[in-house]
Amino acid sequence: MHELSIAESIVDIIHQYVEEKHLPLVHDVSVKVGALAGVVPDSLEFNFAAITADTPLQNARLRIVPVPFVIRCNECGATSEPGGPIAICPRCGGMATKTLSGTELQVAEIEVNEPEEAP
Amino acid sequence: MSVITIERKVLEKNDELARQNRTLFASRNIFSINIVSSPGAGKTSLVEKTLEQLKGKLNVAVVEGDVQTDFDAQRVAKYGVPVVQIVTNGGCHLEAKLVQDALQNLDLTNIQLLVIENVGNLVCPANYDLGEEMKVVVASTTEGDDKPLKYPGMFRNASVLIINKTDLLPYLPCKIDELKRNALSINPSLIIFETSCTTGYGVAEWCTWLTGKVFQHKGTK
Lengths: 119, 221
What we know:
heterodimer; A: hypothetical protein PF0899 fold; 2 helices; B: alpha/beta; Rossmann fold; 22% strand
């Protein structure tokens, strides 16, 4: 159930950013969620909708951008998606691998109305 | 409409507070570990056995995390070490802020090792850095040998795996070699210890290693 506190952190980041930059209404929020980030997308969407209800973000859509788990083998050099959490090279069975992606949990983009022209 | 790239880590606030904790530990030459496991794997028993073993060798302080009650802090207090209980009131994991606040109530004078016992949960604590030097995951034999595959995040983020309740192996279908193989397939660099907190088996080996880490860490400061 840490999706609730993750949703709260996302909302905090947007609020802070929008305030700092004096931005208008936010329509869309995209969040990168790595395959190994341990976050359930449905639960995150649910919690985001729940805590933004009746707030200025109530119409903002949370878009989850999945990021696959990708490793590079230190032994054979192959880059691969193991398909699960196992960090073993599917090509040569090498156990010394480097994680290239899959642990992300990041607010990537927000979509806002065009800022109004300064008079 | 315009799209603005933000690229900010969702847990950046927690990470910043964890950094502050880490700085505090470094300034006091404290080595800290974050013990995680499912409920009932034996975290508190391991803490007790570790305190018993390290008595007179290392100055240890303990932060206990639980959803309710201070039962664990009471157990640990019997070993005469500084201990503080965090009650999360429903929260399923510790966050850096909770630890930071708890440290206000803990006397860290001359402390060399800080043990943080997280809330029993194999999912959420994996995401939250508390400022510790390393995560120690406890997996007990009663949980089965497939735990690492079912909860990979925790095993991936831990540096040490302690396989506890080895005394029960004769009565269980759990195959310890399979458990190790599964854990290493998720995280090949895991350092593995086997313990039974009931018989005391393996505790000395773990404590010797841990003490070495504490002094090695100190040497680098």
